[in-house]
Amino acid sequence: MEKKLKIRDLTLRDGQQSLFATRLKQQDIDPLLPLYKDAGFYIMEVWGGAVPDSVMRYLDESPWDRLRTISKAIGGKSLLSALSRGRNLFGYVPYPDSVLEGFYKEAIKNGLNIMRIFDALNDIDNVKESIRLINELGGIADAAVCYTVDPKEEAPVEAPKKKGFFSSLFGKKEDAPAAPKKIFTDEYFVNLAIEMERLGAKIITLKDMAGLVRPSRAASIIGKLKAAVKVPVDFHTHCTPGYGLASSLMAILNGVDILDTNIWWFGEGSAAPAIELVYVFCKKLGIEVEVNMEKVGEIRERLEGIRRNLADFDLNKDHFPKKFDPLKDTLPAEVDALFDKAIAAAKAGNEDELLAACHAIEAHFGFPKPNLLVKEAEVPGGMYSNMVAQLKALQASDLLDDAMRLIPKVRRDAGLVPLVTPTSQIVGSQAVLLAMDRRKGNPDYTQANNQFISLVKGEYGHTPVAIDPSFREKITGDATEKPYDVSSYKKPANPEVADLGGVPLASNSEEYLLLELLPNVANKFLRNRREEEYKAKQPAEAPKAEKAEAAPAKVEDDEPITGEVFRAPMGGRIIEINVKPGDKVKKGQIMMVYEAMKMENDLEADRDMTIKRVFVTPDEVIGTDALLLEYE
């Protein structure tokens, strides 16, 4: 019997997130859906991850409408999946069980079938409730083990103080032995998977979000996972450092059940491998790819134009890959031989030859070369593209290289966390702040974003290795670990919008869930919806003078600056201003909150002072070094 391989298509979620900073509009997705319906993908990943945030933040679209539209068009022909960050859901901070249940229930009601659940720290405590809820609500719980690597340095690290099944990996809590030299062993990942299956996972995914799984390691871990669990095993990787295609071939040879791919124009580079190249390998191996490749070809033809329209967010807009249809095009003999060479090298366990052959294949088709900077910094492709897009928007692109080089340091200081949302954003944003500190001659960690403080404090869960208590005290003011306190969660208000007819900001339960998840982004998005509804009800002849009153203006006078000033350490958007002229402020008081690279940052008073002037207003977008406050 011919072997078969199931495919999870990532094009509409992770593909566009990794390559185009999640800017794919619904109007571009809609024409593809009839083709997707007949393409026969086992799973389509269409939601979760950065989608709920980004479609509101950048596209002014409803994430619920996106899910409903896709579900209706696909009509059950493929299973629809989303990505959940466990306790962090689709956001960047921990949420209580009530928020998790509300989102999962609404998502399944609107057509979602599979929720892939992971935790950025690989902390089982952060995923077990999501696994239980998804199963109880009628969905399929897909639990992901986040792949990461050991630090480059040989310096010993302290073992975490864990409970439960982790004690078998790191020793008893009371013993607190030094961690072994190698922390992220095959057994570390396999034991996680076994525990996730025991908790009810119906699929196990090896999630290599940074593309760091070398081919030999992919073979080893996938083989051991297949022997250890009874549920299907999925492999998810990226091509950024140059391992993705070769490691996917190794996963196929070692019995993986489901492989994550993208369609040609949305594949390779910092995304997952292209299904077309996987198809060529499988055809040579006698493995049936369970997809209608003719329909994939029709989707591929439309995706080229869509990608060209995303040029503003495309890191490779001037280096498009060559067109290729594996059903119609004949490969040049030397390229066809490269596929054979790669297969032979994979079967022989010759990793160097396998990588060389795969890199030559990708070079022939014009896909990006391995990104050595990303490889060295050990970061996900989506994190890299997001940092590039954010720094470009903030006119601070010159900080990128310095920040990338500092990511490994920040990661080690924070407990050797895997880099996947939200830890990738937290560590990436903090690396930028650290680069700024060093450029200004400040001590390291003079600036720390709120989420980094929470991570070091312990609110995101147990880190893979224990954080140095002295470092925790430096960042948080207290050396002791403090877990997230669900009782401290406060539901956001749903205020009436007085200037738009006095209606509630969130008009129904699904909109209120958006407020709970991403209050700052959802606030602006929902206000836009209420404003549209309000204007639609007004008579056509209504005078323009009856528009909502303008926001209070910032200071624009020409009075010279005589006091000391606070400037923006990093460009971003003003979220909250807590002071006004004349206020007497105490040292440590939070005067302002601003958002940069999706992270919230507090501006604290470094001494007692009196506020003289405020130069910005809420929701204003500011650049690096912009004037914020003057004080006497």
The largest sheet has its strands arranged as 1-2-3-4-5-6-7-8
The low-confidence runs, each spanning 5 or more residues with pLDDT under 50, are: 153-180, 545-553
The domain tally reads 4
CATH topology of the largest domain: TIM Barrel
Query: Helical residue percent?
Result: 40-55%
State the total count of DSSP E strands. Answer: 19
Beta-strand level of the residues, as a percent range?
A: 5-15%
What do you see in this structure?
The structure is a single chain. With 632 residues, this protein is of the alpha/beta class. It has four domains: 3-149 and 184-314 and 325-370, TIM Barrel, CATH 3.20.20; 375-488, Cyclin A, domain 1, CATH 1.10.472; 496-546, no CATH class; 564-631, OB fold (Dihydrolipoamide Acetyltransferase, E2P), CATH 2.40.50. The chain has 23 helices and 19 strands. Helix 6 (97-109) links the parallel strand 3 and strand 4. The longest helix is centred in the last third of the chain and has 19 residues, at 519-537. It is globular and about 75 Å long.
Gist?
With 632 residues, the protein is of the alpha/beta class.
Task: Describe the structure using short key phrases.
14% strand, TIM Barrel, four-stranded antiparallel β-sheet, 19 strands, Cyclin A, domain 1, alpha/beta, eight-stranded parallel β-barrel, globular, 632 residues, single chain
Architecture blueprint of SSEs:
Layout: E1 3-9, H1 11-20, H2 26-29, H3 33-39, E2 43-48, H4 51-57, H5 63-74, E3 79-84, H6 97-109, E4 114-117, H7 128-136, E5 140-146, H8 167-170, H9 186-199, E6 203-207, H10 215-228, E7 233-236, H11 244-253, E8 258-261, H12 275-285, E9 287-289, H13 293-309, H14 333-348, H15 351-365, H16 372-377, H17 381-393, H18 400-413, H19 423-439, H20 450-457, H21 469-476, E10 496-497, E11 503-504, H22 509-517, H23 519-537, E12 564-567, E13 572-577, E14 584-585, E15 590-596, E16 599-604, E17 609-614, E18 621-622, E19 627-631
Parallel strand pairs: 1-2, 1-8, 1-9, 2-3, 3-4, 4-5, 5-6, 6-7, 7-8
Antiparallel strand pairs: 10-11, 12-19, 13-15, 13-18, 14-17, 15-16, 17-19
Helix pairs in contact: 1-17, 3-13, 6-7, 6-22, 9-10, 10-11, 11-12, 11-14, 14-15, 18-19, 20-21, 22-23
